[in-house]
Specification:
This protein folds into three domains: 148 residues, 3-Layer(aba) Sandwich (Rossmann fold); 62 residues; 68 residues, Alpha-Beta Plaits. A six-stranded mixed sheet has the order 6-7-8-3-9-10, sandwiched between helices. Strands 2-1-4-5 form a four-stranded antiparallel sheet. Helices cover 33% and strands 26% of the residues. A hairpin with a 2-residue loop joins β4 and β5. It is elongated. It is of the alpha/beta class. The longest helix is centred in the middle third of the chain and has 16 residues.
Length: 307
């Protein structure tokens, strides 16, 4: 199946000389939720801005649903809805007029029933006659999402969409995202809330210093790079790990009340059985044990640091 977004050898260097993007190659599958993770300044917003036609590319090629973003700009842009980080809604128009106008900008015929459903999905219907400049920050964010969806895009970009918003909006937004995916809309999101990417995304891309360092299915990424830890609670604290256990991936925690053993789930021999035998031989007892998997946040931090 042809990707809905295809990026080939994309570069961007700003006038200051800063290389924001370096030979990006990336394909986004139709109908997936793709999470783009990276520290501040990694190039996430620049990449999104180029695809959406806000920033000119340096070199390379980008197509959206088969349309080149430079040669066939109008067709490419009509496929895209964008919810940027910053709030720009400060107008005196009503919510309803703003969303209807946004739909008309893309040459779409009026469809009040569709727009009503969008506003209801975002809990904005009761505010449809309110002026934009009268709304709270959270409500303005909802209006931006409604504007992005007004022309029925097939690709939706959410650039840090829940930064600084209330829990209710975050819940409404992710419920709406799931409904959009069920209708076949492709969603690309950047977020600092890594638990959201862990819950929502089908695939994860990690960008660092303008380079894509990894793209992987979320479940496979967590399986391949995630680690498990065996935590042994001790009935009596110990001052240090015995010399006989030096060299093992064992750490002292909770002020000596716990031993933490990190192991690789992909290996045939995790080393747990050997560890327990050695602890017994040393007379170190434990009253409880439990396992813990790495979170996506820990995997992400490890990736950025190691690369």
């Amino acid at each position: 199946m042809q990707p809905v977004i295809a990026i080939e050898q994309l570069t961007k260097t700003y006038a200051s000389g800063h290389p924001a993007l370096k030979s990006i190659d990336l394909s986004i599958r139709r109908g997936e939720i793709f999470a783009l993770l990276g520290p501040n300044g990694a190039g996430k917003t620049t990449l999104i801005s180029i695809i959406c036609g806000i920033v000119n590319p340096g070199s390379g090629r980008v197509t959206v649903d088969g349309h080149d973003i430079v040669r066939d700009y109008r067709a490419a842009r009509s496929k895209i809805g964008l919810v940027p980080q910053e709030l720009f809604n400060e107008g005196f128009e009503s919510v309803w007029a703003t969303v209807r106008f946004s739909r008309g900008l893309f040459g779409k015929a009026p469809d009040d029933a569709y727009l009503e459903q969008v506003l209801r999905d975002l809990s904005l219907w009761d505010k449809r006659n309110a002026r934009i400049n009268e709304l709270s920050g959270g409500m303005k964010r909802r209006v931006m999402i409604a504007k992005a969806l007004s022309h029925e895009p097939t690709v939706l970009f959410l650039d840090e969409p829940t930064a600084g918003v209330d829990v209710e909006l975050r819940r409404d937004m992710w419920a709406m995202v799931r409904r959009l995916r069920e209708r076949g809309v492709t969603i690309i999101l950047t977020t600092h809330y890594i638990e959201e990417a862990e819950e929502m995304a089908d695939r994860i891309g990690v960008i660092r210093q303008g380079e894509i360092i990894l793209v992987e299915d979320k479940t496979r990424l967590m399986k391949q790079l995630g680690k498990k830890q065996l935590i042994l609670q001790l009935p009596q604290p110990i001052a240090a790990i015995p010399a006989e256990l030096a060299g093992t991936p064992l750490e002292l925690a909770e002020e000596g009340h716990a031993l933490v053993f990190t192991f690789d789930t992909q290996r045939d021999n995790t080393g747990i059985a050997e560890l327990l035998r050695r602890l017994e031989a040393l007379g170190i007892d434990y009253r409880d044990l439990q396992t813990r998997e790495s979170s996506l946040e820990e995997i992400f931090v490890d990736l950025v640091r190691s690369r």
